[in-house]
Amino acid sequence: MPLAFAEPTDAVIPIHVVAADAVDDALAGLTPEGRAWAQAQGFAGSLGQILTLPNAHGGLEQVLVGYGTAAKRARDRFHMGAAARKLPEGTYEIASGLQGDDLDEAALAWLLAGYSYDRYVKPSSPIAGLVAPDDVDAARIAVIANGEALTRELINTPASDMGPDELEEAARTLAVEHYAGINVITGDDLITSNFPMIHTVGRASNRQPRLIDMRWGDMGPQLTLVGKGVCFDTGGLNIKPGSSMGLMKKDMGGAATVLGLAHMIMALELPLRLRVLIPAVENSIDGNAFRPQDILTSRKGLTVEINNTDAEGRLVLADALTLSDEDDPALVISMATLTGAARVAVGPDLAPFYTDDDGHADAVAKAARKVADPVWRMPFHDPYEAMIEPGIADLDNAPKGGFAGSITAALFLRRFVESPYMHFDIYGWQPSSAPARPRGGVGMGARALLEALPEMLNL
């Protein structure tokens, strides 16, 4: 069911968002009975506090939602998503207290709060409806919410039902929806088409590896999105311990995120040419699995020494990035759940990204603040290049020592693309529930990129 705003009715209930320092003014606007009720309930405008005010017939007349202090609000985002989940059934409108970017965020939070993953259980009850505020671009916000919902749904689906076949089907469904072209190279055809590392990583699975290639648009600069589609990662012969394998259904989070972003771009009809490349594989264990100390030759011709079969994401991305470069795009962006080192560096909530272009970095950082999609720039630190050069081959897929793991992975990927390039090393998972973000799969960086693209590509 698409996430959507409610239609206006004659029984719309107004919501007044009240910051902690505006409580007195808010209460002054109530009836004497309303003020007495608010005082009896201890309404102080605390962040997330909700006060429902009845009418003479016992129904809801209006709602006050506490917005706390600026310091409290800065510790998280999507606060109105919590209110959406707490309010009783009905149709609401935000009547006062928010404007500008805050109102946009509140409207998006309300829609995102309506997402739940219920493929295998009885669907949860729908949340209260919100009429789109007059001062927001409701159509754009609904598109963004549904792009995020697509990303969440793909990540949340277990690998038993989200292998390379199903990921391809999701891409085909999106292509049909937006009249995009799509081509898929599968199995041994990857060898004859010169995608050797994608084939090598996925060949041990009975679910064939593939490269998904989707194109949309015929005018404007070309943007190429490359998403890591490792649908499950055992670690290969360097098998992961059980504690590390538990969330590996989300190792296709980069692919899920670029598909969500692609939906936003196409639905909003951005004036650009879009290409989406997804190497979709399952990193499994079998007699023909690739081995530690193997040396692989990539599509680009660079040789790679395998020092850990669990560092497979950069291998499949390398072949796809080489392809991305071959039609001279204006910008290539890769997204991948690539390294645990990124989580150690910035935790699960920030999306670290890499670029050599200061203008692009500034555009993304500014956009991220505007749309409440936190990111953090990391360095392509050239002195670390020596760490990915093993001597026996051009590149090492897993440098020893463990230092700067996210940076060395990003440097590895940069070797395969000459076009303007940006890389996101995302987590793709919400560890515990937060407003408008239930525990589970989550998009990271997509909304910031959508906001920044016009500036980065001069649209």
UniProtKB/TrEMBL annotation:
* Signal peptide residues on this chain, from the entry's feature table: none
User: Which PROSITE patterns did the record assign?
Assistant: CYTOSOL_AP
The residues covered by the Cytosol aminopeptidase domain are 308-315
Any one of the GO CC terms: cytoplasm
Gene Ontology terms, MF aspect:
manganese ion binding; metalloaminopeptidase activity
**CDD domains linked:** Peptidase_M17
Query: What are the UniProt keywords, alphabetically?
Result: Aminopeptidase, Hydrolase, Manganese, Protease
One Pfam entry for this protein is Peptidase_M17_N_1
Gene Ontology BP terms: proteolysis
Xref: InterPro entries = Leucine_aapep/pepB, Macro_dom-like, Peptidase_M17_C, Peptidase_M17_N_1
Q: Domain of life here?
A: Bacteria
What family is this protein classified in? Belongs to the peptidase M17 family.
- Protein name, per record: Leucyl aminopeptidase
Q: Which organism is it from?
A: Yoonia maricola
